[in-house]
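Q: Could you fold this chain for me?
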Amino acid sequence: MYKRGKNKLSLFAILYTILAWVSSIGFFVLQQVLHVVSAKPGFNIIIYIGYLKLGVTFFKYIPLVYWNYKRKSTAGFSIHAFTLDFAGGFFSVAQNLTDLYDGTTDRLNPIKTGLGVFTMVYDTMLMFQHFVLYKNKRQKIKTSSILLGEKDPNLYTSLIDDMESNSFSFDAVKKTDMAMVE
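A: Sure. Below is the predicted structure, expressed as structure tokens.
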């Protein structure tokens, strides 16, 4: 796999993953047993897994927002994926509201609406960090230089200096990037 340096999964991520798998399997087995004995279960495993996804979406952006704040920079951050992510969240919520308005459904899908709202809120925070708060600290990287294989020592060292000045350790990235410069 990829070298991760000192990066590792948090205890929270490990416990959430274990809990999600164990509870999903448990609920699935319980749903099948209740189906066999002709009892109608009061829950649906698909809806439960949807709520697990909603939980993952709620927590997955927190580290990125936090580290951007801690470093006071969005250097190395590509905003394009998040603008598209925001558009997807917006259209998801818009579709839910349109379906409700034209009578296709009688209620909103809470999971789909929640995913869209969480996505738009976090993406708005990330775009605010990128375009407003840390606008002057972004690293301008010439993609043509990278694609052409030009070796510019200033290209990577300013990003590394920024990380070191904010006590942000990326030892594996630093070694890899410096090897590319040499």
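A (continued): Residues 141-148, 152-182 have pLDDT under 50 and may be disordered.
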